[in-house]
Amino acid sequence: MRHVLGFDGGGTKTECVLMNETGHVVSQSHGGPSNPNRVGFGGAAASVCEAGHLAVSNAGVSIDDIEALCAGLAGTAYPESAVKMKRLLEEKFPCKAIRMCTDLDLTLEAAGTKAAIVLVAGTGSAAIGRDAQGKTERVGGHGYLLGDEGSAYHVGQRTVRVALRHFERTGKDTALGKRILAETGEPSWLELQSRINAAPDEIFPRLFPIVLRAAESEDTSARTVLDECAAALAALVQDLAERLRLQSEKVLLAKSGGMLGRSAYFDQRVDEQLRKALPFAQFGVLQMTPAEAAARMALRLLAPA
Hints:
- There is one protein chain.
- By secondary structure, the protein is α/β, with parallel strands linked by helices.
- It has helices spanning about 35-60, 80-90, 105-110, 150-170, 175-185, 190-200, 200-205, 210-215, 220-245, 265-275, 290-300; strands spanning about 5-10, 15-20, 25-30, 65-75, 95-100, 115-120, 125-130, 135-140, 250-255, 280-285.
- It has two domains: about 5-105 and about 290-300, Nucleotidyltransferase, domain 5, CATH 3.30.420; about 115-285, Nucleotidyltransferase, domain 5 (2-Layer Sandwich).
- About 50% of the residues lie in helices and about 20% in strands.
- The strands form two sheets. Strands 3-2-1-4-5 form a five-stranded mixed beta sheet. It has a five-stranded mixed beta sheet with strand order 8-7-6-9-10, sandwiched between helices.
- Helix 8 packs across helix 9 and helix 9 (about 220-245) packs parallel to helix 10 (about 265-275).
- The protein is globular and about 70 Å long.
- The relative contact order is 0.16.
- The model has no long low-confidence stretch (mean pLDDT about 90).
C-alpha cells in the first residue's frame, strides 16, 4: 500500500504523520526544530528527515512505500526559501513527490471551513485567514527580528528585560527573576546575558513555561507580561479580520500552537482579548492537527491508483 508523510515544523519541534492512501493515520513522530531561519536550512532538513524516518520505523513500513510528502515549515514563506528547502528535501527523500508550504498554510487547511481565521501562537506568532470567496491573508510570521508579537520568544524576552531592569534599579531580584536564573542554571544576569547574546533562540522561548508557572502562582510581573502577550496576539487577529473584512462576520476563529492549552490563566486572557477584537466570531477548533493536514495535502500528489 502507498503511503505519504506530512510535516508540521516550527522553531521548537517538527511533528510528522504517516498516512496510507486510504487516509488512515498509521503512525506519528516528532523531531527537532525545522524553521530554517532559526536552525539553518541544513538543520531544518535534518529534523524533517529525522521525524520522517522515525514515523516510518515506528510503523514497520519501508521508506520505499512513501510516494509523496508535504512539509509545512515556518520560515519558508519567501519563494527562494521554499525552493532551497525543497531541494534539500529532494536529496533526503529521492524519487518522492514533494510539496512545500508554510506551517500557517497547514493550520488554515486544518480549519476545514471556507471562511476561517487561525491564530498561531508558538515560538513565533501569526494569524492566517480566508474569506468565503477563498481570498487568504496572513499577518505576522516574520520571525523575531521583524515581529512575533505575543510569541513565546516575545514573552521570554520581555520577562528578562523587566527582571533585569528591576535588578539594575534595586540591586535585588524579583521572585520571577530568581526563578529564571535558577532554572537556566546561571549564577547572575551577566552570565545569562552572555548566553542570550550568543543564542537568543535557545533561551527566550524556553522561558515561557517558567513564566506560565509563575503566573499560575499569582506572580504579578509574570501576569503583566502574559496580559501584554495576549493583547498582542489579539491585535494580529484583529488586523487580519480587517484586511478580509470579517470583523462583523460569524467566522470560525481557531487557535493553534504550543503556547496554548498549558495554563488556565493565559488561555483565559487570550480568549478575553480575542472576544474584544472579534465579538461576532465563533470560537472553534481545528478539525485535525496541522501535521495530519499536511499528510492529506500530500495525498493529493499521488497519481490515481
